[in-house]
Amino acid sequence: MGSRVLQLLVLWSLATTAFSLSPYYYKNICPQALPTIRKVVEAAVYKERRMGASLLRLHFHDCFVNGCDASLLLDPSPTIDSEKNSLANRNSARGFEVIDAIKAEVDKICGRPVVSCADILAVAARDSVVALGGPSWKVRLGRRDSTTASRTQADTDLPAPFMDLPALINNFKNQGLNERDLVALSGAHTIGFAQCFTFRNRIYNATNIDPAFAIERRATCPLTGGNSNLAPLDPTPAHFDTAYFNNLVNQRGLLISDQALFGGGTTDELVNTYKLYPHVFWNDFAHSMIKMGNIKPLTADQGQIRVNCRIVNN
């Protein structure tokens, strides 16, 4: 009986190992894959610093909808209800052409399509953070690409900029992420910009906002019109730092969902910790990015390796 149990445990262990993601997945298949991705990302971020935040956001918005499977990259078609048209992505998700450029370069250097679009999103997110002065981490690889997408699920599962703390905690919990992951990953808002319509209600109606900050933001976000006008998510939108958390403590969070992390709730202490100890934030951010990248990946014979990230292989 004991040996039978041991045998089953060994088999289970081997199966888990075989189908789990690994930082070394492309080491023998295509050793130049990761340096090639980094080169294209660095060039894109050098050309436009904002692109770093955009590429990071693509990975996040991919993983939160049925796992990290590159479903976000699929264009609309008779059989695909594209996630690009969801409320959170329409007219705001960007960087798709950079992913196309990475895919073309990687397939050329590897000699064939062996790197999945889902893995490209995960590596490009890490390389974007590094390019903007943030931490690095070993991205676990070996994901495959979905053959379906769901705009409806994207509308349901992606966190909204208007959410309060309980809603945010629940949203992340549904993805297997805890409060520490919530605060650490929200720290991604240390880079990038938001559109006026996402923070208008806060700067005109909120009571938990620094008055001078509200006046400052109203200058480029009128009560009506200017929906797509941009404002930085923190004072240093092209640098990965802790200014975002400093903002929250001073009631200068741009989005309702940002300020929700600091205001008498269970996440206040963590915000203060990240503000005071950047290395703690960096370590937690890297850990939570790896954890997020592990959400329901397709592996082994599931899904496919798309030839074109925008369309399912025939």
TrEMBL record:
EC class (word): oxidoreductase
Keyword Signal attributed: yes
Residue numbers binding Ca(2+) 1: D62, V65, G67, D69, S71, E83
Binding-site residues, Ca(2+) 2: T190, D234, D241
Annotated site residues (Transition state stabilizer) in this chain: R57
UniProt keyword annotations, A-Z: Calcium, Disulfide bond, Glycoprotein, Heme, Hydrogen peroxide, Iron, Metal-binding, Oxidoreductase, Peroxidase, Secreted, Signal
EC number: 1.11.1.7
Locations listed in the record: Secreted
Catalytic activity: 2 a phenolic donor + H2O2 = 2 a phenolic radical donor + 2 H2O
Cofactor(s) this protein cannot do without: Ca(2+); heme b
Active site: H61
Domain of life: Eukaryota
Gene Ontology molecular-function annotations: heme binding; lactoperoxidase activity; metal ion binding
Cofactor binding, per record: Binds 2 calcium ions per subunit. Binds 1 heme b (iron(II)-protoporphyrin IX) group per subunit.
Function, as annotated: Removal of H(2)O(2), oxidation of toxic reductants, biosynthesis and degradation of lignin, suberization, auxin catabolism, response to environmental stresses such as wounding, pathogen attack and oxidative stress. These functions might be dependent on each isozyme/isoform in each plant tissue.
Protein's UniProt name: Peroxidase
